Automatic annotation (TrEMBL):
Residues 377-388 have a biased composition (Basic and acidic residues). Residues 369-399 are annotated as: Disordered. InterPro entries: Biofilm_reg_signaling, GAF, GAF-like_dom_sf, GGDEF_dom, Nucleotide_cyclase, PAC, PAS, PAS-assoc_C. It comes from the Bacteria. Residues 282-334 form the PAC domain. Residues 211-293 form the PAS domain. This is Diguanylate cyclase CdgB. CDD domains: GGDEF, PAS. It comes from Streptomyces bugieae. One of its GO terms (molecular function) is diguanylate cyclase activity. Residues 187-214 form a coiled coil. Keywords: Coiled coil, Nucleotidyltransferase, Transferase. Its EC number is 2.7.7.65. Residues 425-556 form the GGDEF domain.
Length: 556
């Protein structure tokens, strides 16, 4: 038929091809596109049956659409043929360009493979180009034209309406249709992927908005303080966002806090603690400044958060008010280190403070070592020593000298014994024992005795300088630590303190009087705290006995 009316067939075929290709691009979804491909082969190219076999991600081909026969659709739709069986089919028969035609004389071997198919028996052809019911014609679809690229699917057609095998123009039309169908299916897949991506993006954005709202609410309404700060760069640590709880805790506004970083607010003694706190998972307990100038104890806990997957990172800090706990801890520590009656440092705290000023190296050996190395006098109050890590070649007085290690410890040296004051200064230890206290305690009771001890503690504290230590050793014994005194200074201090204690003490309407004996010892490196206290205690007893003898002679 094509040969008898070739110009008409060409024009009709082109019109039909143009129409069905136009319909390919109007489909809204991938499923609609696949069905349109199958319908176009039937309605536009003149075949009674067509099927679209689509390559799945695993490589096998599934019958995605069928047109022309409801029975064939029911039998074939959704069924899968293996890739190996399809590769076998596409390698058999005659090649019509990109088309593959398998005549009935060869196709019988495919009757039992796993590819879904719909064929009916029929008589042998009466003329050479007559279509036989067992003939098979496949139009492969590739991601690129002219058989290039990956296999996208296969259009299989059957039973041309004119009953003849397609001629050159029919073959060309089917091949062009397969090419356009491949483009339409690829575009439909792309649109489907884009739609899925948009849906997924919208869901992610909704989840992100929900997460941001959840974070905002958790941040704003958290019972403890929270802050977001910059991480890295010139503005590292600057507060970007604070919640109401932190503003209330520090007595500051959110806009006011954005001018600061935590390093601007931390107590000067706690700046080292803040700098040592790591960004990720770091914890610290320190003091932050309130607007009224006071400080509040807080616990900081850091974590690092990112704005996006590759976006800037920020520091999220939880700030918890631990003022009450710290106050309780300090009270417990004070009770452990101070006398419950007088409030003075107790025996353990006295020994700790005294031991912190002592070292195990005797001052005499230290002076000899520094003298041999050209070093400074170990009594130098500034603690200046030659650095023990580097030689001093080229500096006058140190050439070839063995360096002496310097541990930044100011060594204590006792002033020289004797009545004359040589002008040297040291840490004086004044051991005080009350005279006549036992008789007051026995006569008037423990309440009166406790009142006397409290008043003596007050008078001793009032009589020393800021920085000196007045401690209650136990019972009616007190110890005063006074640094930077010479021999005469220490003696004058003992006299002043004794005179401060002597005046009567009024307790419950009666006046009682106690005296005091002082022994002056000196702390010196190479001694232990016990040895220093024992030395002062012995001198106190010597002074007590000498005063007792003097009183007896005066009475006689």
């Amino acid at each position: 038929m094509e040969t008898e009316s070739e110009p008409y067939v060409r024009l009709a075929t082109l019109r039909q091809l143009h129409q069905v290709v136009a319909e390919l691009n109007t489909a809204r979804s991938l499923a609609d596109t696949l069905q349109t491909v199958a319908d176009g082969a039937v309605n536009g190219l003149g075949y009674e049956l067509s099927a679209v076999n689509l390559v799945r991600p695993d490589g096998d081909l599934v019958v995605a659409a069928v047109a022309g026969s409801a029975g064939a659709e029911a039998l074939m739709a959704g069924r899968v043929g293996s890739r190996s069986s399809w590769d076998r089919r596409l390698s058999m028969g005659e090649r019509w360009g990109d088309l593959c035609f398998i005549p009935y004389t060869e196709g019988w071997v495919l009757d039992d493979d796993d590819v879904p198919q719909w064929h009916t028996a029929g008589p042998a052809p009466r003329f050479p180009d007559e279509w036989h019911p067992m003939d098979r014609l496949f139009a492969p679809m590739y991601t690129a034209g002219n058989g290039g690229g990956e296999l996208l699917g296969v259009i299989s057609v059957d039973r041309p309406r004119n009953g003849r095998r397609p001629g050159p123009w029919g073959q060309e039309a089917l091949q062009m249709y397969a090419f356009q169908s491949a483009i339409a299916i690829s575009n439909a897949r792309l649109r489907a992927n884009m739609q899925r991506a948009l849906v997924r993006l919208e869901r992610e954005q909704q989840a992100l908005r929900a997460s941001e709202e959840s974070f905002r609410q958790a941040f704003e309404y958290a019972p403890s303080g929270m802050a977001v700060a910059e991480m890295g760069g010139d503005q590292h640590g600057r507060l970007l966002r604070t919640n109401d709880a932190l503003c209330r805790l520090l007595g500051r506004t959110a806009s006011g806090l954005r001018r600061y970083s935590f390093s601007d607010l931390v107590h000067p003694e706690d700046i080292g603690t803040l700098l040592r706190t790591s960004a990720e998972g770091g914890r610290a307990e320190l003091r932050l400044a309130r607007r009224d100038g006071t400080y509040v104890w807080v616990s900081l806990r850091n974590s690092v958060v990112a704005d996006t997957a590759d976006g800037p990172r920020y520091l999220l800090t939880h700030v918890e008010d631990i003022e009450e706990r710290k106050r309780h801890e300090l009270q417990l520590a004070h009770r452990a280190s101070h006398d419950s009656l007088t409030g003075l440092p107790n025996s353990a705290e006295l020994r700790a403070r005294l031991g912190a000023r002592l070292c195990s190296r005797p001052a005499g050996s230290l002076a000899d070592a520094y003298a041999s190395s050209g070093g400074a006098d170990p009594r130098d109050p500034h603690g200046f020593r030659p650095d023990g890590n580097e030689p001093f070649d080229g500096v006058d007085g140190f050439e070839g000298k063995a360096p002496v290690p310097f541990d930044h410890h100011v060594h204590l040296v006792a002033p020289a014994d004797g009545p004359a004051d040589d002008g040297s200064k040291g840490l004086a230890v004044l051991f005080c024992d009350l005279d006549g206290f036992k008789s007051i305690n026995d006569r008037f009771g423990h309440n009166t005795g406790d009142a006397v001890l409290i008043e003596v503690a007050r008078r001793l504290t009032s009589g020393v300088r800021d920085g000196d230590t007045v401690a209650r050793l136990g019972g009616d014994e007190f110890v005063v630590l006074a640094d930077g005194l010479g021999t005469a200074d220490a003696q004058d201090l003992a006299v002043r303190l004794r005179n401060a204690i002597i005046p009567p003490i009024r307790v419950e309407g009666r006046a009682v009087r106690v005296g005091a004996s002082f022994g002056i010892g000196w702390a010196s490196c190479g001694m232990t705290a016990e040895e220093v206290l024992e030395s002062a205690d012995q001198r106190m007893y010597v002074e007590k006995r000498s005063r007792s003898k003097a009183n007896r002679r005066a009475a006689g």
